[in-house]
């Protein structure tokens, strides 16, 4: 079944790729932007997927981590899900990353799923997928 057949809407966000040169889902709307400044209204999406986003291309940049989490939580609906991949073992164990996750503990549930081990920067590291479920606010 295709995306069009399900009635789902897909949006892609990328800082500068010209999508005319790539094969992408027909049903997708392609937008230029950054995950740190998503060009969408509050609670726009049921699900968000971040593959190779901020934790991967800007490791150890605290302000960018904070902006990414805030923006993704802002734009996902209550009970909506956010999936971020890959999260490396070094990021998973990083104190700043852990503190940022804990700063959103009242807003969302965070589940780290271990997937595989991979050579990253010369080290065999565990790689995780982070699933975030936005909590519904009472009152």
Task: Describe it.
This protein has 139 residues and is of the alpha/beta class. It is built from five helices and six strands. The chain has helices at 3-6, 54-57, 62-75, 89-92, 95-103, and strands spanning 10-14, 28-32, 45-51, 76-88, 108-120, 123-134. The chain has a four-stranded mixed β-sheet. Strands 1-2 form a two-stranded parallel sheet. β5 and β6 (123-134) form a beta hairpin. It is globular and about 40 Å long.
Task: Give me a quick take on this structure.
The chain is 25% helix and 40% strand. It is of the alpha/beta class and 139 residues long.
List its salient traits.
alpha/beta, single chain, four-stranded mixed sheet, 139 residues, two-stranded parallel sheet
Shape descriptor: globular
Which regions have little confidence, pLDDT < 50, spanning 5+ residues? none
The run of helices and strands is: HEEEHHEHHEE
Distance between the termini: 39 Å
Number of strands: 6
Q: Topology, pairings included?
A:
Elements: H1 3-6, E1 10-14, E2 28-32, E3 45-51, H2 54-57, H3 62-75, E4 76-88, H4 89-92, H5 95-103, E5 108-120, E6 123-134
Parallel strand pairs: 1-2, 3-4
Antiparallel strand pairs: 4-6, 5-6
Helix pairs in contact: 3-5
């Amino acid at each position: 079944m295709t995306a069009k057949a399900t009635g789902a809407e897909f949006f892609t966000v990328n800082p500068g790729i010209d999508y005319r040169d790539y094969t992408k889902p027909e049903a997708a709307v392609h937008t230029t932007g950054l995950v740190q400044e998503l060009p969408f209204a509050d609670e726009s999406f049921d699900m968000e997927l971040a593959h190779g986003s901020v934790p991967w291309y800007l490791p150890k940049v605290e302000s960018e981590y904070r902006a990414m989490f805030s923006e993704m939580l802002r734009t996902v609906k209550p009970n909506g899900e956010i999936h971020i991949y890959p999260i490396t073992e070094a990021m998973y164990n990083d104190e700043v990353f852990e503190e940022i996750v804990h700063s959103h503990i009242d807003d969302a549930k965070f589940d780290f799923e271990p997937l595989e081990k991979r050579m990253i920067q010369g080290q065999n590291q565990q790689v995780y997928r982070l699933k975030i479920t936005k909590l519904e606010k009472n009152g």
